[in-house]
Request: fold
Amino acid sequence: MDDSQQQAFHRKALWLIAGAFLFRLVYALVYPVNLAGDEAYYWDWGRRPEFGYYSKPPVIAWLYAVVDWIGSGSLFAIRATAIVLGTLSLLVVYFLACDLFDRKTGFTAVLLSLAAPAISVLSFFLTIDAPLVLLWSISLWMVWRFVSDKDRGLSLFILFLSLGLGHLSKQMMWFFPVMIVIYLAISSDTRPYLKRVGLWISLLGSYLFLIPFLVWNSKNEWITFVHTKHHFQNAPTDKHFLLERVEKFFEFLGTQLGVLSPVTAIVVFGLSLTGLKVLKKATPAVRFLIAFCGIPLAMMIILAMRQKLQPNWPAVFYIAGIILAAAWFCGKLSHSFPPDRWRRLFKPGLIIGFFLVGFFYFGTFLFKAVGKDGNKADPNRRLVGHDVLADEFNKIRTSIPGYEEMFLSASNHRDFSSFLAFYLEDQPRVYRYEQFDRISSQYEMWPNPFEDGHAGKDGLFLSPDVSKLPRPLARSFEKFEVVGSFKVRYGYDRTREFFVIRGSGLKSWPKGRPLQKAKK
Reply:
């Protein structure tokens, strides 16, 4: 392929990325999709920056703190940040694919990425995966530049930074340096790089970023690690052992068809897993991609036979997987599976993928047009009603004399506290009451109303489904009364009732958590 053709693919790729960026930005501006529960939760974290949190390292909270400061707590600022991170990730994938193969492969990787439903989701919702995918992509690119002897010093420095920030983004990144060592140890071509002192400084030095996070955890009963451990504990079921394992395995594979789109998923899994058999004999570029996709995917499949996996867990492995699939579609490699004749599925695969992506963006409009928004098939069904919840609560709240002096709280799931905090016009501090003696969210890590100086004051509680406060909480007030109720339509066939309860004269606050003292 001559230089003019390469330049043509380069221009197409950049225009395609720019077009996707503008489309997502305009969509977010014209159609303000409600926050997801995790987004509202992390936004509330961002209002109290710390070095650690209940379930995650601190980068997502820091990011929300910056976004909230710049965007003044606006929904569009959150959406725009996710879109910028997704666009930067796409650019890095393109340049990595170009370095590994050529610009045609880079352009194809961009197409496959844009046709993957999960990438559209990650580029629209500001969750922990948005910064993680960007930092993982940068780290991959820098590893390849290092073994290609391109600006080794600069590449290692950027690798050090991306790994360090990645460690503070999500626990998955903690394994990346180990994956780098495994990749370099596979072939005699790359083993000499393990003798480079600079590499070890970058890899081991990146873990120094975790020191403040570890110190915070040591003072908070290692709560993040306790929570993470729960993800790998099997919940007991009544099903037969073998049947349960088979069901979890196929459930995992089924979700990945929707994550990547069916054709792309089959190609990625086929190339990655069959490539393990010829890993040492593969070309350097192919070996690199299989090492960072095939090996971890194989481990995920084994884990899927043991327990339920969240659909987004393998997301970072697909960065290398999509580039591998793009190279195969461009004829850069051949595998025993999928067979070469399957390359003709490229266009049908893109059509299916873009159809699924289009359904994510426009499916809600279709369901709303026929009066069935919130239907089980509506891609945004879990986002319906959260702003209405806050509006209805606020109508009752503002009708009470002296409401400005009352503290607010919610019981049941943490999302209710998060949604009230974000969607109420004044974005107040909202507490959460945990009726069990445990820490089950970040809200139990923060001071409760009594510790925050609200002794003797009145409070308003949002209580779903029940018209009275839990008994331990009710005893903490001089008296309490139901001051209103309302219903929220979460779908065309699902409505929930909520009660607003006033507690007068706060005397104490139930323990509700095992921490020895409040962490101010």
